[in-house]
Amino acid sequence: MSSSPKVAGVVLAAGEGSRMGSTKQLLPFGGSTLLECVVDSALASSLHRVVVVIGHKADELLPLLEKRPVTVALNPHFVSGQSSSLKAGLRTLNEESEAVLFLLGGRPLVNTEIINHILAAYASATRPVVVPCFEGKRGNPVLFSRETFPRIEALNEDCGARPLFKEYATRILKVPVSDPAIHLDIDTEEDYRRLLLLERPFL
């Protein structure tokens, strides 16, 4: 029996959170912070390694990561947008990683179960791009196979990985999930207040 593909998790946590007005990665939640919830869910999953990309307030984020078995990637160009963080994360990976799952540092309710569900779907039907969908709408985190890495490296705009969805449109694996957490980002104070009203497990 062949072993499961080795997929690395890259947590994108370098942004300024300009719409929030503060560094959202540091906001309290679940007995820790938003970032720690995301990282701990990734570490508890079947991902073979976890990378955390930081930039804004890096000196405040580093202490949260020091005791966790993660690789920290510093993105000094975080002001240029998310694409720079995608590249910074990719550059920490070696040939052992067959694919990467990009997790957003502002989505603490994306738990280990969701992550493992995406990984299992990829293992059973290897595609260059794997996206979770809730009620037909695409969400995050998104998985990209090594085939796409050169295309991510070629991104030169603050567009995240959106151009790849068009380029690989006919080869995307859409994975239904039963949890709306894949859509819940924390961008504003109102989003954060709603999050604090939710009571649910994080792993």
Brief rundown of the structure:
By secondary structure, the chain is of the alpha/beta class. It contains seven helices and ten strands.
Characterize the structure shown.
- The protein has 203 residues and is α/β, with parallel strands linked by helices.
- The chain has a single domain, classed as Alpha-Beta Complex (Spore Coat Polysaccharide Biosynthesis Protein SpsA, Chain A).
- 30% of the residues lie in helices and 22% in strands.
Q: What series of H and E elements makes up the topology?
A: EEEHEHEHEHEEEHHEH
> Which whole number gives the mean pLDDT?
91
User: What Rg is obtained from the alpha carbons, in whole angstroms?
Assistant: 16 Å
Largest sheet: 8 strands, mixed
Summary keywords:
203 residues; alpha/beta; Spore Coat Polysaccharide Biosynthesis Protein SpsA, Chain A; eight-stranded mixed sheet; two-stranded antiparallel sheet; 7 helices
List the helices and strands and how they pair.
Layout: E1 7-13, E2 28-29, E3 32-33, H1 34-43, E4 49-54, H2 58-65, E5 71-74, H3 82-90, E6 99-104, H4 112-124, E7 129-134, E8 137-138, E9 142-145, H5 149-153, H6 162-167, E10 172-176, H7 189-197
Parallel strand pairs: 1-4, 1-6, 4-5, 7-10
Antiparallel strand pairs: 2-3, 6-9, 7-8, 7-9
